[in-house]
Design goal:
Helices cover 82% and strands 0% of the residues. The two termini are 41 Å apart.
């Protein structure tokens, strides 16, 4: 290399770009990042609503097939005005929260038992897979037949949907505890409970939170399906009401509200993931 050649030392171009993005994000601050997210969501919603409105008017779609966005909005406002929305929304949210929490606890406990005991795993794992493989739309009427039109049948369906992803995620997370960390736990002579609390659960937390993201959507699906089949309250009931009364704006309004509920649940789990896994960033 000649003496006139200048060598450039430092991070590669890709690293410089990532560093620049990191500095830019840091300058924005939490409020700036939140504003960007809100504006991004608003832009997506604007595009969807605009395309929906243009399509309905350009194709002259009948209102009973696909009403315009303003009619759906009017139906949602009427739900608030006549007092139907909040009791039904609260009923559904309560069922989702209860089913998600209880189903997650059952799933985590069962996942630990299946991970800890090979005998239990070999006996019960095939039955769990068979139970999960059964279509829940077919199981739901059986639950109604066995438990009646009550909260018991609704909670049973939600729990069936929630516990499996949490069980699988817990088993995966416990299995992937690093060998050096496990060895450290043995050297410290930790009891089984201390080892679980201080080493296993923190190490398995990323996988468990990933399973929780699936489980919260499954809880929502189970709640709406149960209400659709066997309830006189809830957002699922509003869907039935809109369908049986040929009130398509009400039906679509109820569907959109359920989408918002699902996004809210997923967002809360994602927020918990960011807070709990700050150390991994």
């Amino acid at each position: 290399m000649s003496s006139g050649t200048v060598t450039r030392k430092g991070p590669p171009l890709g690293g410089e770009r990532r560093a620049a993005k990191s500095r830019s994000a840091g300058r924005r601050g939490p409020l700036g990042r939140a504003a960007v997210r809100v504006l991004t969501v608003a832009a997506y919603l604007f595009v969807i609503i605009a395309a929906w409105s243009v399509y309905v008017r350009a194709a002259d779609v009948p209102s009973y097939l696909l009403p315009a966005p303003d009619k759906v909005w009017s139906a949602a406002v009427e739900l608030v005005r006549n007092g139907q929305l909040w009791p039904n929304l609260g009923y559904t949210l309560r069922n989702i929260a209860f089913g998600f929490v209880v189903g997650s606890l059952i799933g985590v406990a069962l996942g630990w038992v299946l991970w800890a005991s090979r005998t239990v795993r070999e006996i019960f794992a095939p039955y769990m897979v068979l139970l999960q493989a059964a279509p829940k739309i077919a199981v739901a009427p059986l639950l109604v037949l066995w438990f009646g039109l009550s909260l018991t049948s609704q909670y049973a369906l939600i729990l069936l949907l929630v516990f499996f992803p949490m069980t699988a995620a817990t088993m995966l997370g416990l299995r992937d505890v690093p060998a050096d960390v496990a060895t450290l736990g043995k050297l410290l002579n930790l009891s089984r409970r201390q080892y679980l609390r201080t080493i296993q659960l923190p190490a398995a937390m990323p996988a468990m939170l990933a399973g929780a993201k699936i489980a919260v959507i499954d809880a929502m699906t189970g709640a709406f399906l149960a209400e659709y089949l066997a309830s006189e309250r809830g957002l699922g009931y509003l869907m039935v009401l809109g369908n049986t009364s040929n009130n398509t704006p009400l039906l679509i309004a109820a569907v959109l509200i359920t989408v918002v509920v699902g996004l809210l649940g997923f967002g809360l789990v994602s927020l918990a993931e960011r807070r709990l896994l700050r150390w991994s960033r």
